[in-house]
Amino acid sequence: MPTTSARLLKLLSLLQTHREWSGAELAGRLDVTPRTVRRDVERLRDLGYPVHATRGAAGYRLGAGSSLPPLLLDDDEAVAVAVGLRTAAGGSVAGIEETSLRALAKLERVLPARLRYRLDTLNAATVRAGAPPGPAVEPGTLMAIADACRRRESLRIDYRSPRGDTVRTVEPHRLVSFGRHWYLVAWDPGRDGWRTFRVDRLTPRTPPGPRFVPRPPPDGDVAAYLARTLSSRAWPVRATFALHVPAAEAAGRVWPGMGAVEAVDDRTCRLHVGAETAADLVWMITSVGVGFTVVDGPPELADALRVQARRCLDAVG
Which residue, 79, 142, 168, 239, is most buried by CB atoms nearer than 10 A? Predict the structure, then answer.
């Protein structure tokens, strides 16, 4: 029979699988009597683990408590948490970097040598590339918006935009982490339409406003709506292309932030993109790697496509 401490760890591991266990099932897994299971459950409760008894049956489940008890992680879970904390330390949520590093330091101190070796190997072989993080966002701001989304309560926000500062009352729908920024997608009653707001430019006012009846998400998909919105504004040159493949295939070829894919039928779709120059648009559309037709775009787009076509023909003689 295993020692009491080993048995408690195994019992805790079983309870953390997020299912209900009968006393007989636990006794069978631990190779002890139901009476021993009841004593071990009481020991876990004394240690701060909220083990609840199932009404009407001799069963147990692990619930949420008023304080955070120690967690039991297997090897893969421990490495995954460490990687996640290291990633969060370089993220765009203000104030979370130091907290993540503190938590990571605590975890690394208790990692066994085999797991510390796996983590060190992964860190040594990994290089963070790409654009630097965007403007930092306060965790309290994210939590206030997320809570209003969950409770379906209106938000009054101070919003700073390139066109000036405004006070808006919106019905928040979802927070979206997109590229280097956080965005709030919300219904704006004052403008009778969906709007997107950069979270680093807004400050929620308290208390929140009245509750509202949620609307269906724009375009049926908040992420797709945001991609289309961002690709169709703020760029000096914009275009729409018909792609000769289904939308599902095109979506796998278009990287996040490049543009918005719009389904047309079972065989074709449209791609809405924006860029600084017509030559940039040509580079973007040809990088998708499928047949296409120009639906709408500036006059210089045709010239830029011809230049690219001649360059490609010259390359093969």
Answer: 239
Angle between helices 34-46 and 4-15 (to 10 degrees): 80
Location of structure tokens 């079983």 = 14
Rounded Cα distance, 72 and 9, in Å? 8
The answer to whether the pTM exceeds 0.85 is no
3-state secondary structure of 119: helix
Confidence of residue 1 (pLDDT cuts 50, 70, 90): very low
Are 271 and 217 within 8 A, CB to CB? no
* Tokens standing for residue 150: 């969950």
Which stretch of DSSP H or E encloses residue 24?
A: helix 23-30
Reduced to 3 states (helix: H, G, I; strand: E, B; else coil), residue 271 is strand
Q: Which parts of the chain are beta strand (E)? A: 21-22, 51-54, 59-62, 155-161, 164-178, 181-188, 193-198, 202-204, 237-243, 259-263, 269-275, 292-296
| Closest alpha carbon to 298 in 280, 317, 315, 311 | 280
**What CA–CA distances, in Å, run from 317 to 221, 234, 305, 314?**
46, 39, 19, 5
Q: What is the pLDDT of residue 234?
A: 64
**Quick one: pLDDT band at residue 134, thresholds 50, 70, 90?**
low
Q: Which residue(s) pair with 198 in the sheet?
A: 183
